[in-house]
Structure formats: structure tokens, C-alpha cells
Amino acid sequence: MKQKFVSCLIAAGVFASVAGAADLVLFAEGDFQGRPVNVVIDMRQLASLNFNDRASSVVIEKDAWVLCTGEDFSGTCVTLEPGRYSSLKELGLDDGVTSVRRRDQVSLGVFN
Is residue 55 a contact partner of residue 89, using CB atoms and an 8 Å limit? Predict the structure, then answer.
């Protein structure tokens, strides 16, 4: 029993550290439930992560993000500031997000 409890604590810690590392976390269900998808780069098509039209809630840790209903940041787009959005229904995006990007471009720096 004790080993199972320790395993659960370790799993929760790993999940928390991974979720904390993402700038944007999409959840398949409202209230931050269901399968999470961590995003750190612009995604022209969430289908590549098998998450097209599945997001129902989102946590934005860093920067403002634009969530769009179409591929390549097209369709209806909504810009969200950092925060916790327990439902995308009020925004008209429930199970409709297809692409996401940062509002402001991020410089990757200079590589020599």
C-alpha cells in the first residue's frame, strides 16, 4: 500500500513538472480534466498531436496565445492572456481549437 502511494506521488510530481514546463496546456475536458496537451511552440495543426477539435479548457502560463478554429491560424481566433480558463464554451471554442500560436513572435536568437 505504501509503495502504491509513493508511486502515485511520484507520478503526480512528474505530471506537475511537465505541465509547469509548458507555456500552454490544453485539456480534453472542462475544468482542466481529461487528456492534457502541453504546448511550447506555435502549432499550425493540432491534428499532428491527435488533439484537433478536442480542447475544452486551457491553462496559459506564459505569454498571450491565439487559439483558432482553422488550420494555419485561420477561422475564428481568440487571444487569451496568461490565466486559467476552465471552459472554452463561452468563447465559442469548445471542441473547436485547431491551431495555436503566441500572439507575439518569439526570437529564437542567433546561431553561429
Answer: no
Q: What is the pLDDT of residues 38-63, one digit of tens each?
A: 999 999 999 999 999 999 999 999 99
53 domain residue, yes or no: yes
Asked whether residue 84 is assigned to any structural domain, the reply reads: yes
CA-to-CA distance for 9 and 48, rounded, in angstroms? Answer: 31
**Do residues 52 and 46 touch, judged by C-beta distance below 8 A?**
yes
35 lies in a domain? yes
d(CA 110, CA 52): 33
Residue 26: name the closest of 101, 97, 102 by CA.
97
Q: Does 28 reside within a domain?
A: yes
Task: Tally the domains of the chain.
Answer: 1
Phi, psi of 66 (to 5 degrees): -110, 120
Dihedrals φ, ψ of 74, to 5°? -115, -175
- Domain encompassing residue 40: 23-102
pLDDT of 13 > 50? The answer is no
